């Protein structure tokens, strides 16, 4: 097996190209189906951290959830070039509600 | 609470009493585990929130400046400039144990001795430099965020699972066992009383017979 990718970034071309400069593996995709396939492939190949831009992450929660129970790969949504749509924050909120039973971080 | 379907015998009673003891002890242990996990989770989730807020803000800035760089230079030039990155992120990947949940533990091996910007300055503008430098500063944070967020994720899942176990023990298993024990004891007592009255009756009959003779 060739040396596996450790950190991968999956997302639209505009957002992910920048990550190439700092030494991450970049996979640009056009829609959520491509993104889903790419993530599956990366996970099979033993990628450790996969960053996925939020506009795709919103549409493929089922695939992200499938990898939730294992320590690796870590799939993390990140904002894309047009800013954040709050998906990452929503996940934190969901975690809190799951663990504590009530949202104690964001209530205002 | 419906009782278990068992024979009301002394042996069964003994067995059930043992089970109740184990269940109560397990319940206490699981509850303690849940408390500790929630404590750990609270520590981490605040950090997680802070990290995500910071990272999202900074990443937006970095991506913005990258977009700016792209608009200044032609995309072919930029893609060429970034084709061969000079820095390679090296990770030391391990697994940490928090309350018997295996969570990721990542250390970044820094190799900052190399040149950060992988391209010649002749063709690209300063905006790209800016974007790359910003992003590089963010790298450690991004990895840390990944680690913490996954840890929180897994802890939340485990806390939920644990809560179910605690509740099942507290509200189903233990009441059921106690109900069954009560049933067996009353049944055994009933048998005992029945036996006693029978003996008394027999004794009366024998005494009457002796008297007649």
Characterization of this structure:
The complex is a heterodimer of chains A (108) and B (213). With 108 residues, chain A is an alpha/beta fold. Chain A has a single domain (7-82), classed as Rossmann fold (3-Layer(aba) Sandwich), CATH 3.40.50.10580. In chain A, 42% of the residues lie in helices and 18% in strands. Chain A has five helices and four strands. Chain A has helices at residues 13-20, 32-44, 54-57, 61-66, 87-100; strands spanning 7-11, 25-28, 49-53, 74-78. Chain A has a four-stranded parallel β-sheet, with helices on both faces. In chain A, helix 1 (13-20) links the parallel strand 1 (7-11) and strand 2. The longest helix of chain A is centred in the C-terminal third of the chain and has 14 residues, at 87-100. Chain A is globular, with a radius of gyration of 15 Å. The N and C termini of chain A lie far apart (51 Å). The relative contact order of chain A is 0.16. By secondary structure, chain B is mainly α. Chain B has one domain: Helix Hairpins, CATH 1.10.287. Helices cover 74% and strands 8% of the residues of chain B. Chain B has three helices and two strands. Chain B has helices at 10-72, 75-82, 126-212; strands at 90-98, 101-109. In chain B, strands 1-2 form a two-stranded antiparallel ribbon. Chain B is rod-shaped and about 135 Å long. At the A-B interface, helix 1, strand 4 and helix 5 of A face helix 1, helix 2, strand 1, strand 2 and helix 3 of B.
